[in-house]
């Protein structure tokens, strides 16, 4: 099934770029039923195969109870899909370079072409505003709903002291944005270091954000990147399958 295979590729690509480590997940709304989405069972992204992909309703209940452990934070996906009819894929990650921007008042800003979408705005979710237990994990529908509300109509939201959520109208867009959000955060920190305190940095202006595809990022813009990453991820999966067959012989 093509959707499951593409979702597996998305998991592998995010892991290959250090956007997810042993944690983090990516989901895809199903084309057959917009009130359902696909997500892996609770496991490290780099190990996900098509057999590990489960189907959920938008309340984040599994359609078939396989007994597999589920991600505690699956509500992030269901609640964003409820809020955003335009969104078909959601990434949740602990992307290391974006975390400093979630814990300071320094805003992430667009500074190079493939990070132009940051110009559309990246709000920060403060979980303390929605619960007092000290747990920073989004493990209830209530918290998922609050995160979705903070995200609003934006392409991504930072989660203070935790990570980020990144969305797209396609799996490709959500994944590519996740990789470039990480890279852009890293580049911004480097630019700030070189510039020194208060030193000027020339960010993309509104016209450039618009022209570079921030608001109108077309599928064509990202396809070269996506195709390359898919080829690499497929090669990795094939090598694993080959090694597995060899062991079984
Ligand atoms: Mn998390």
Please explain how this structure is put together:
The protein has 249 residues and is of the alpha+beta class. The chain has a single domain (2-248), classed as L-fuculose-1-phosphate Aldolase. The chain contains 7 helices and 7 strands, in the order αβββαβαβαββααα. It is globular, with a radius of gyration of 18 Å. Bound molecules: manganese (II) ion (MN). Residues 23, 73, 92, 94, 162-163 line the site of manganese (II) ion.
Please give the domain count. 1
CATH superfamily: Class II aldolase/adducin N-terminal domain
What is the subunit organization of this protein? single chain
CATH-defined architecture: 3-Layer(aba) Sandwich
The H-and-E topology, N to C, reads as HEEEHEHEHEEHHH
Helical residues, percent? 40-55%
* Largest pleated sheet: 7 strands, mixed
Percent of residues in beta strands? 5-15%
Which cofactor or ligand species appear?
manganese (II) ion
Strand order of the largest sheet: 3-2-1-4-7-6-5
SSE diagram, text form:
Elements: H1 2-16, E1 25-29, E2 36-40, E3 53-57, H2 75-83, E4 89-93, H3 99-102, E5 124-125, H4 141-151, E6 156-159, E7 163-168, H5 171-195, H6 206-212, H7 219-248
Helix pairs in contact: 1-5, 1-7, 2-4
């Amino acid at each position: 099934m093509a959707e499951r295979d593409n979702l597996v590729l998305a998991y592998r690509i995010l892991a290959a770029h250090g956007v997810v480590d042993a944690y983090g997940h990516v989901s895809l709304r199903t084309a057959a039923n917009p009130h359902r989405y696909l997500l892996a069972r609770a496991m490290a992204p780099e190990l996900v195969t098509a057999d590990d992909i489960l189907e959920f309703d938008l309340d984040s209940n599994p359609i078939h109870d396989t007994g597999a452990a589920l991600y505690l934070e699956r509500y992030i996906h269901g609640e964003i899909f409820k809020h955003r009819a335009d969104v078909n894929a959601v990434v949740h990650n602990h992307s290391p370079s974006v975390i400093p921007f979630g814990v300071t008042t320094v805003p992430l800003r667009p500074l190079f072409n493939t990070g132009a979408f940051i110009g559309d705005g990246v709000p920060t979710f403060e979980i303390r505003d929605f619960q007092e237990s000290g747990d920073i994990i989004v493990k209830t529908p209530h918290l998922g709903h609050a995160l979705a509300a903070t995200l609003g109509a934006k392409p991504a939201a930072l989660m203070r002291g935790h990570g980020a959520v990144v969305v797209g109208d396609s799996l490709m867009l959500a994944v590519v944005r996740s990789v470039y959000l990480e890279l852009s955060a890293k580049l911004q920190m480097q630019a700030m270091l070189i510039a020194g305190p208060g030193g000027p940095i020339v960010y993309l202006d509104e016209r450039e954000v618009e022209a570079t595809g921030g608001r109108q990022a077309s599928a064509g813009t990202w396809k070269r990147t996506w195709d390359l990453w898919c080829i690499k991820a497929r090669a990795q999966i094939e090598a694993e399958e080959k090694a597995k067959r060899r062991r079984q012989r």
